[in-house]
Amino acid sequence: MPGGRRESWTIREIKMLERHYRSMNAAEIQRRFLPHRTLNAIRNTAVSIKAGKWPHRRWSDSEVDTLRMFYSREGPGVACRLEARTPAAVRAKAMEEGLSTRWTEQDIEILRRKYPVGGIRAAASELPDKSRVAIRSQARSLGLRYKRRLGDGTSCLAWTEEEIERLKEHQNIKFGDLCRLFPGRSKVAIKTMRQRLRRGRSDQAREI
Description:
Number of helices: 10
Helix content: 40-55%
Oligomer: single chain
Number of strands: 2
Order of helices and strands: HHHHHHHEEHHH
Strand order of the largest sheet: 1-2
Strand content: under 5%
Largest sheet: 2 strands, antiparallel
């Protein structure tokens, strides 16, 4: 979008470039794997991660140890400590490992602004150095909750742990009485969650 923030490259996309850029040109990669990326974006990202400069290789245990030791303080700059690893490759591996940089005041402000209306996906789009696990954990520590929107524009608020425990305790009482225990929930929402609980899938109704 003009004037908007560019969509961050995913771990899968970066690994794909590292694997195929030596044997395919940008146009072929776009056609086969990345139709939503422009040719310039593919070429620029390939240059930034030095795709094709050396064969793609697995991360060694010592490299992962270095990443875990320094990433929280140095972020993608850990690439300076790792031969043949670019900042983009470091960022992708850190996200895969669930690592994240320290939270700044600006990071927190972005999380407070984006998480309640768009959840993890929206926050991650503006916090590329934060893993999904880190975003979820920080949001919970700040007491932030994600309000999803249904097709009719009404909100679908994620269930709290207290609500789920209450539902587990009273799920077998009459449905009308059960609904009175959750005045802020629709009958459909209560029925759906009760069904999920009985199938052991309550986690699927929480924020993803």
